[in-house]
């Protein structure tokens, strides 16, 4: 199992992703969750949205982050802790998926007066999601994220 990744690291650009498709799938899956952390922490979803296709259902997550930040500020330095990234698999010549194992850390939404609107405690149980990725030109974009049972 790979080491836990509680903090965000610089996001690979499309040109910085590995040339091996399976390695690229793993990298973009990991980056999606690290950019989710950055969006929650800063309130900026620009980089997160740039990682996904316009029709990705995962954009609802970015919209939720935007909505929370309009209500106040979010206190969650690293909502997702990545536990492991496994099984990168090409499904077709242009589509693939990777499984991301993660736990969720606390999330607090506080309004401008300091009132706590949402207070979610740590959820240390490891869960997983399948991140579905599509090759678009020379890069990759997330086109679906499905929580696995």
Q: What's the quick description here?
A:
The protein is of the alpha+beta class and 149 residues long.
| Rg from alpha-carbon coordinates | 15 Å
Element order: H for helix, E for strand: HHHEEEEEEE
Q: What class do helices, strands and sheet pairing give?
A: alpha+beta
The share of residues in extended strands comes to 35-45%
Helix content: 25-40%
CATH class label? Alpha Beta
Distance between the termini: 20 Å
Number of domains: 1
CATH hierarchy: architecture? Roll
Shape: globular
- Number of beta strands: 7
Largest sheet: 4 strands, antiparallel
Sequence of strands across the biggest β-sheet = 2-3-6-7
If you had to describe this structure to a student in words, what would you say it looks like?
With 149 residues, the chain is of the alpha+beta class. A four-stranded antiparallel beta sheet has the order 2-3-6-7, covered by helices on one side. The protein has a three-stranded antiparallel beta sheet with strand order 1-4-5. Helices cover 27% and strands 38% of the residues. The protein has a single domain, classed as Roll (Nuclear Transport Factor 2, Chain: A). Residues 1-15 have low confidence and may be disordered. A hairpin with a 5-residue loop joins strand 4 (107-110) and strand 5. The chain is built from three helices and seven strands; from the N terminus they run αααβββββββ. It starts with 20 loop residues before the first helix and ends with a strand.
């Amino acid at each position: 199992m790979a080491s836990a990744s509680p903090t965000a690291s610089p996001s690979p650009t499309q040109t910085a992703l590995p040339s091996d498709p399976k390695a690229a799938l793993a990298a973009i899956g990991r980056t999606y969750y690290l950019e989710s952390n950055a969006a929650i922490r800063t309130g900026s979803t620009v980089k997160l949205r740039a990682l996904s296709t316009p029709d990705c259902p995962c954009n609802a997550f970015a919209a939720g982050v935007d909505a929370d930040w309009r209500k106040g500020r979010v206190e969650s330095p690293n909502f997702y802790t990545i536990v492991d990234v496994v099984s990168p698999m090409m499904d077709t010549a242009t589509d693939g998926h990777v499984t991301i194992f993660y736990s969720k850390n606390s999330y607090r939404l506080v309004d401008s007066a300091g009132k706590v609107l949402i207070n979610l405690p740590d959820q240390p149980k490891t869960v997983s999601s399948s991140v579905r990725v599509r090759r678009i030109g020379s890069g990759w974009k997330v086109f679906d994220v499905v929580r696995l049972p």
